[in-house]
Fold these 3 entries.
Entry 1:
Amino acid sequence: MPDSFDVRNYRQFQRALGDITTALPKDLKDAAKQIAEDWISAARNKATRPNAKAAAQAMTVGYDTQGATINNRHPLFYGEEFGGQARPETMQFPPHQGQRGYWLFPAARDNADKFQKVWEAAIDKATQPWDNKGG
C-alpha cells in the first residue's frame, strides 16, 4: 500500500462543487415548476366530463422556496378524480377506482418519461461545471 497518493484536479473539483451547490437547488426548483405546469396541462387535456373539466381548470401551480405544488380547491375535485358511488351523496361521480384516478394521475403516468427527462436535464445542467474529464 503506498504511503501517499496524488489527487488530480482536486482544486478544480472543489470550485465546481461550490458552483454545483449553488446551481442545483435553483435548477431543480425550475424543473419542478415546469413539471407542475406540464402535468396540469396534460391533466386538463385528459379531463372529459364537464365537472372534471371544471376541476382541472381550477388547478394552479403554487410556488415556494422548495419548488412547486399543484393546488386545487374545486369542491368536486376528489370525486371527479377518484370516483364515488359508494354512498348516495356521491352518485354523481364516476365509479370509484381507488388510487388509479381518472385524469390527474393518469396524466402523470402517461408523462412519467417526459418528467424524468426534465429532472435529468436539471441535474445535468447543475453539474456541468464538473465534467470529470480532467487530466
Entry 2:
Amino acid sequence: MLRDDQLAIYKKDMYKAEREGMIQVKPKVSEIFRIIPSNTGGGDKRTQLLGAGRLTRHTVEGQDIRFKSPVQGWETLTKFHTYSAGLALTKESVEDTTKGGNLLKDLARTWGKYGTIAKEEMGARVFNKGGDLTPGDWVYDGSHPGNTDSSAGLLYDSVELFNLTGNTRTTKGGGTYYNSVAGLTVTAGNFETIYNLQTATNNRDEEDEIVGNPVDTALCTPGSNKFLLDRIVDTSKGMPGGQLNDKNPYYNIVDKVIDWDYLSSTGGWFVGKRNHEKFCFCERQGQETDFYRHKPNKGYRAAVDMRFGVWLQEGSWKAWGRAGGTSTTGNYPN
C-alpha cells in the first residue's frame, strides 16, 4: 500500500504539473477583462450611487449652496460558478506500476489546460452571446444564494450587452444609447463608424454628462479579420485598401489587435477598452487538486475544482462596441 507521505508527494507533483500545463494555453481573458480576486461567498453585489450633481455657478454674493439627496443607480451581481473534474483509479493501477506518478502528472497537466480553457470559454461567451435578446444567456445572470438578479439572462438594465439602434438602452438620466451596428465587415470606414460610436456618442455617464470613453483595442477572430485590422491600424502611409500615399488617420489609433480563438465566427468584431474597470472577471478560487484513498474498494480518487465568474458592472456596455454579429432570441437558462 502507498504510505501517507507518498500520497503527499503525488499531490505536490500534480500541483507542479498544473502550473506547467497552463503554459500550454495562452489565455486572453486577463488581457480583455479586469481581473478581480474574490475570497468569500457564492457571488458578489454592487449598488451604484449616482453623483451629487454638477456644480452651480453663483450669480450673487452669499448665495446658498443647493443640496440634494444621493440617488441610487443600478444594482449589479455576479455568480461564482464551480467547475470540477475527477478520475477513479483502481488500487492495482496505482500500486502495481512504478509509473503511477507519471500517470497522475499527465492527468494534472490536462486539468491545468482545461481549467484555462473553461475560463476562456466563459470570457468569450460574454461576447458571443452579447447580442442574445430576451431571455438572454446564463453568463449574465448573477443570481447567487440570498441575491436574485432581476435582469436574469440580460445585462443589469434588462437589455442585451450589444444592442442595436432599434433597441436602445436608457440611462438614469434619460438618454438612449446603443453600441452595436449590424452588417459591418472589417473595412477602414466601418472601423471608423464603431470607433466614433464609442468615443463620440457613448462618451456619457449614467446621468448623461460628457465623460471620456477611450478605446485602445480591436478584438476579432483569428485569420482574415486580424490581417485586415492590422492593415487598418498599423499602416502609417496609404489608406487601407486605397492607392493614395496620404497619411493614414487610423494609424496606431488603437495600440493592440487581439485575435481570440474562442470568439464565434458569426459574433462580429469589436472595438473597445481592454481591462475596463467595469468589465470584470472574478477569480473566486484557483484550481485545487486532491488525491485520496477511496476506502470502499481501496482504490484512489483524483479530483480538481475551481470557481470563477464574470461581473459586468454598471456602464460595462460602454467598454466595447460591436460591428456585425447577430442578435437572436436567447435560450436562457440553458
Entry 3:
Amino acid sequence: MKWLSVVPLACVLTVAGCHSRSGCDEFDSYNGTIEVTAVDAATGALVPNSTMTLMVAPGDTAVQSVGSDVSEYPADFIGLSAGTYQLSIAAPGYTTWQAKNGVTVLCAIPPATVTARLEKSP
C-alpha cells in the first residue's frame, strides 16, 4: 500500500515532462494558421479588394486576396510552422499596412489573428 503515495507524484512528473520542451518540437505535424482581416482605420468597415502578402521564407511569399465580397474575411494563411512572419496588406485608396513586429505563430490554438487598420492614402 505504500506505492499509492508515489502514484500522484509520478503523474505530476509525467505531465510536467510532456510540456518541458519549448516551442513546437513535440508536434511534428503542427500546422499553424494566421487569420487576417483588413478594416478602414476611420470607419472600421471591412476593406474590399485587399491583397495580403506573408513572407514565409527568405525570397518566398504567400499571397491571399479578398475581392469585393468582404464576407471572405478573415483570409487564412494555413500550414505555417511556429515562428514570426512579416505581413503586409495593400488595397486601392489605402496606404500599404505592415505588421510592425511581424506576426507570431505559436504552438497554440486558436490561430494567430490580425486586424489591420488601413489608413486612407493621401
